[in-house]
Amino acid sequence: EDGHQLWLRPHPAAPVTVVSAAKNSLLLATAKQELQRGWQGAAGANVRLTIKKDKALRNDGFRLSATSVEAATEAGLLYGVFELLRRQQTGQPLAAGVSNPSYELRVLNHWDNLDGSVERGYAGQSIFWRKDSAFAVTARDKALWQAYARADASVGINGAVINNVNSSPQMLSGPYLARTKAIADELRPFGVKVFLSVKFSSPALLGGLKTSDPLDPAVISWWKNKTKEVYALIPDFGGFVVKASSEGQPGPQDYGRTHADGANLLADAVRPFGGLVMWRAFVYSPADKDRAKQAYNEFVPLDGKFRDNVIIQVKNGPIDFQPREPFSPLFGALKKTAVMPEFQITQEYLGQSTDLVFLAPMWEECLGSDTYQAGPGSTVARCTDGSVYPQRHSAMAGVANVGLATNWTGQDFGQANWYAFGRLAWNNTMKSSQIADEWLRLTFAESATTAAGQPAPAAADWNAHFLAPMTQLLLASREAAVNYSMPLGLHHIMSATYDHYGPGPWWAPDKMRADWTPPYYHQAAANGVGFDRTTAGSNAVSQYHEPLAAQFNDPATCPDEYLLWFHHLPWDFKMKSGRTLWDELALHYDLGVHQVRQFQQTWDAARPYVDAERFATVQNKLRAQSGNAVLWKDACLLYFQQFSRLPIPASVEPPMHTLEGVIANDQRPQRQRR
Ligand code: BDP
């Protein structure tokens, strides 16, 4: 029970006959094989897989009954088969009717470097790239890539960007393209298309041109030729992802051009092959007073200037994957340009591969947020999936948490986030509770027989003593992480730039870019705490459509969750609860600590229902998380207390650390290498 099987644990399958008139294809073969491998229905049943044109079936969608899957494409048949098997295993009704994906493209972004390291990766080295033997594709590589693609397909993921957005120009060189082809060959039978992140200055850096100016004819033809070369190797290549004019990456602005000029250059190159360009909106410069406003300011004036095979890829919040952010105001604001949400599955700011944090509630919160941009009900989900604005393509991206770790994600429960991303990209109104329930059943049911030599518990027993409490734990885990790290709208107060695990509200070395240091974000001082983004401050509130702008602008109506995101308030500010801001802050930190302790107890009580191996690993992780939560609480309360000069409320557990102690520990060089 090392976790390598993910949610696809092998089950003894009953014999089944697959009937299909569809012509043989790679995808159909996979669909048949999966059915035979996992069939839990009546022995000897006939299952019919049918390709048919039908108005109700959109792109990869399918129609499901107990013994038949109908779809417009072979990929649809494969997704239908996986859904049928999932329903058999989780005891849901099989005659589910039609299911269409919310997004045409459901894509993972792997921040994998060509030397095998993974930026913000906490589960070991890259599954795609290796330092020394970079180009020798081994049988082991292939088996791993197939297992990876199978897991993707089982939750509807149909694209993989296999290298870091901080891209190397070498990515487009012959040897790396050859390996890309080898990867694409293994992913193809599971319907997963390969995409590449490209460096905008590749024409100069790799091609030896004098410039990478997007309007230069030589640059245009360089990209056209390079793209042709890629498609000659990989005919179903998906397209490019670009991080440009962002965090030191080159971009069109280096040549006095716009993001639209840059994106359109690549869009024109991939267009003849049906390719896409995902152009990231993660841009900010230290010159501006409020980082949260910059992407909107740069991209809104360009609305309507992008080709229809460009999608602007927008992180869920305006800053950077923090434990909680309001949705990015770009959602809904671009009305003539396709926009796609980017979520971070790898837990950079949410406990990495130590803390147990189920992210579906965070993504559900973002997708369900009403932007009001086209009237009430213009949720982020509907503004990005084509329901509100006409758009040729739609997509959702997740920054992957996958590495060479045996269990793929480092923390066994990190798998739940990979799973949840796929499920939400397929259905962007799915409830976190349903996702948690499915994942727990698929991942842990039947594992009890191996636990502590116990006989298998009765199903009712398992449901009551494992499934129910563990579902609650998963659903509470994200709010707990917010509570013990950045409650009430605090953000970006984590430990040093290169680490991001644990607290660091004090961190501000000399000469460091201010917008990379926590004090820029929390603004703690004797007169209060929080970033003033009201009309009297940076005015970021005005990027939101009414009634949100007014609601966020007034501390009396601003939700507590976003209070210090939008407001700088005195320590004795009276909260909706009647308590002072200082007390409320302290109580949230304390609550977070208690929640994690409760998670430990819940897990300990689940022992008879889990195999010994995963029980022990998760128990250890929770122990570390508990320590992390206490550290966050102590460090932040002691740090902020220097400014508030108020006592920690009596009901709050007294600190077990000193401020000097945590700061000294944070500054130990080894912490930066986490
Ligand atoms: C930040 C990460 C950094 C990424 C950047 C991005 O710390 O490693 O390169 O996002 O998304 O969250 O480009």
From TrEMBL:
<protein>
    <submittedName>
        <fullName>Alpha-glucuronidase</fullName>
    </submittedName>
</protein>
<dbReference type="InterPro" id="IPR037054">
    <property type="entry name" value="A-glucoronidase_C_sf"/>
</dbReference>
<dbReference type="GO" id="GO:0045493">
    <property type="term" value="P:xylan catabolic process"/>
</dbReference>
<dbReference type="GO" id="GO:0033939">
    <property type="term" value="F:xylan alpha-1,2-glucuronosidase activity"/>
</dbReference>
<dbReference type="InterPro" id="IPR017853">
    <property type="entry name" value="GH"/>
</dbReference>
<keyword id="KW-0378">Hydrolase</keyword>
<feature type="domain" description="Glycosyl hydrolase family 67 catalytic">
    <location>
        <begin position="96"/>
        <end position="408"/>
    </location>
</feature>
<keyword id="KW-0732">Signal</keyword>
<dbReference type="InterPro" id="IPR011100">
    <property type="entry name" value="Glyco_hydro_67_cat"/>
</dbReference>
<dbReference type="InterPro" id="IPR029018">
    <property type="entry name" value="Hex-like_dom2"/>
</dbReference>
<dbReference type="GO" id="GO:0005576">
    <property type="term" value="C:extracellular region"/>
</dbReference>
<dbReference type="Pfam" id="PF07488">
    <property type="entry name" value="Glyco_hydro_67M"/>
</dbReference>
<feature type="domain" description="Glycosyl hydrolase family 67 C-terminal">
    <location>
        <begin position="409"/>
        <end position="651"/>
    </location>
</feature>
<dbReference type="Pfam" id="PF07477">
    <property type="entry name" value="Glyco_hydro_67C"/>
</dbReference>
<dbReference type="InterPro" id="IPR011099">
    <property type="entry name" value="Glyco_hydro_67_C"/>
</dbReference>
<dbReference type="GO" id="GO:0046559">
    <property type="term" value="F:alpha-glucuronidase activity"/>
</dbReference>
